[in-house]
Amino acid sequence: MPTAAPTSVPVWEPVTDPSSSPQDDDTGVTVLTVTRGRPDLLQERCMASVRKQTVRVRHLVIVDGCPATRAALPESPPGTEVLYSPRSASDHSGPGRLARLRNLAVARATTDRIAFLDDDNEWEPEHIESLLSLARATGSPAVHSERIVLHPDGSPWLDGTWPWSRDPAESRRKYAFALACGVVTPGTPYMRDRADPHRRTGAWRDVDTNTWLFERDLLLAHPFLEEYTPQHETDFMGEDSVLLEELLDAGVAIACTKRPTLRYYLGGFSNCGGKGREDGFAWR
């Protein structure tokens, strides 16, 4: 599947002094976060869990055209750089906008490896270390973890339905398929992200962006798709789903730690069922 080339770089506005952010670190990993309108979650979950990692990483935070979020981040811990990306009247939240900002952030990063963490999610302290160990052991340029799925209030996801399906009947069918594939276990919040290479009975291809650790060169060769079609929207394929399909089609070796080191909170645009979306949301 062809991938659109990244758009031209916008005018980044530094929020923190870039000279205070190291150009190198112990692991060669940059964590990229795009944020808008959730400064409390950004600081209390996302940024806090990045600081608690058992290995030292850089953290590049992109504030997506939200002055209130920018104002709430007057200072950042060492190793964190915050940039502000203004919006034009044609910019809307959605996979296209998010993909463009992620591609631009990958281009700006200088480390060998890239990880992503959304502003409302958090990692276990050993998340990056376990991914690095697997990458080094396997030589894979793309490794990922599994996850624990939680409701926005932190309670475990035990609903027996698939949160990313809009129709209730389809949600039950998708959960039943996930159960048959061994992706979920009834009565637990664990989800086993998998990237099965072959389309066969029982194959599963769903890996959340927040679980990945990529070689930066891989993302430069396979950037996130920036232009989406009505069919992408119908199939509910966002930037992470399209990237996974492209990597599998390209024969990229992918490995999984088999450890649920991501704490994934429901409530984002992909699983809120249309509720809570800001005005102007657009798939394209």
**Number of DSSP E strands:** 12
- Backbone structural class: alpha/beta
- Quick one: CATH class? Alpha Beta
* CATH fold assignment: Spore Coat Polysaccharide Biosynthesis Protein SpsA, Chain A
Q: Into which percent range does the helicity of residues fall?
A: 25-40%
Order of helices and strands: EEHEHEHEEHEHEEEEHHHE
Under CATH, the homologous superfamily reads Spore Coat Polysaccharide Biosynthesis Protein SpsA, Chain A
CATH architecture: Alpha-Beta Complex
**Main β sheet profile:** 10 strands, mixed
- Estimated radius of gyration: 18 Å
* Structural domain tally: 1
Distance between the termini: 17 Å
Helix tally equals: 8
Beta content comes to 15-25%
Q: Please state the average pLDDT score.
A: 85
Given as residue ranges, the uncertain stretches (5+ residues, pLDDT < 50) are 1-11, 19-24, 272-277
Q: Globular, elongated, flat, extended or rod-shaped: what is the shape?
A: globular
